[in-house]
Design brief:
The chain is an alpha+beta fold. The chain is 39% helix and 12% strand. The protein is built from eight helices and four strands. It has a four-stranded antiparallel sheet, sandwiched between helices. The longest helix is centred in the first third of the chain and has 20 residues.
Length: 238
């Protein structure tokens, strides 16, 4: 699928798809047709990649396969809480976050975390509710579709840049179909469970997971929208 470079694009619709994207954390049980998912992935595959390597590999989980993975990972998550020593069994394969946090990133992280928890009425001492809310990740926030993304270990770090553009394309294309998403690095700790479940080889590194579905418009958590710093704070004009 190609587009004539002379084709006029509706700028307002493109802007709306991008700016209406959010990390939805509550979904309706309404199923998403396979043909819609396939279309979104096909559109997203137009993402650029160095020398057209197209390093993405996608696993789509629905129905029983989704539910079985949810059960396995939630059980592991509960077990780690009961016995923190088990954490050593569940390690992410690459550093998604920095080893040492510094400003302004740690400040934004805290603002995000306590903004979300504050909205939900979860206090700093409420460990049970924190655990429960974090485990919502491993339930795909009740979305009917779970996506897992892997990359061949032979690829370099630049391919993760390519991958990010592919993931963004999925999230923006989903908006065109009235769908929402939530990209999730939380799954990465449980790759030892996920890889055999989805049938991925040891040569594949888990990049992240993603929830896909129709956002619940009545869920309080979906009123949480993260701020963005102004353009002048990250742009140098020369």
């Amino acid at each position: 699928m190609t587009t004539n470079p002379q084709t006029v694009i509706d700028a307002a619709s493109v802007d709306a798809a991008i700016t209406s994207r959010m990390s939805a954390r509550a979904f309706l049980p309404k199923p998403v047709p396979r043909e819609t998912i396939e279309h979104i992935l096909q559109v997203a595959s137009r993402a650029p990649s160095g020398t057209n390597t197209q390093p993405w590999r996608v696993y789509v989980l629905q129905g029983a396969s989704r539910d079985e993975l949810v059960a396995k990972v939630c059980a592991a998550h509960d077990a780690v809480r009961a016995d923190p020593a088990l954490k050593a069994q569940y390690q992410e394969e690459y550093d998604y976050y920095p080893q040492q946090w510094v400003s302004p990133y740690i400040d934004r992280r805290r603002e995000n975390g306590w903004g979300l928890y504050g909205l939900l009425g979860i206090g700093k001492a409420d460990k049970d509710r924190m655990h429960e809310q974090h485990q919502r990740n491993f339930r795909f926030f009740d979305a009917p579709v779970g996506l897992m993304f892997t990359i061949d270990r032979v690829m370099g770090r630049g391919s993760l840049v390519d991958y990010g553009m592919f993931l963004q394309n999925i999230m923006v294309a989903a908006r065109g179909h009235g769908l929402h998403t939530c990209p999730q690095a939380a799954w990465n700790d449980y790759v030892s469970i996920i890889r055999p479940h989805i049938g991925a080889s040891d040569q594949e590194m888990l990049v992240c997971g993603m929830s896909l579905g129709y956002a619940d418009p009545d869920a309080l958590v979906n009123t949480f929208h993260t701020p963005r710093v102004p353009v002048d704070s990250f742009t140098t004009w020369l």
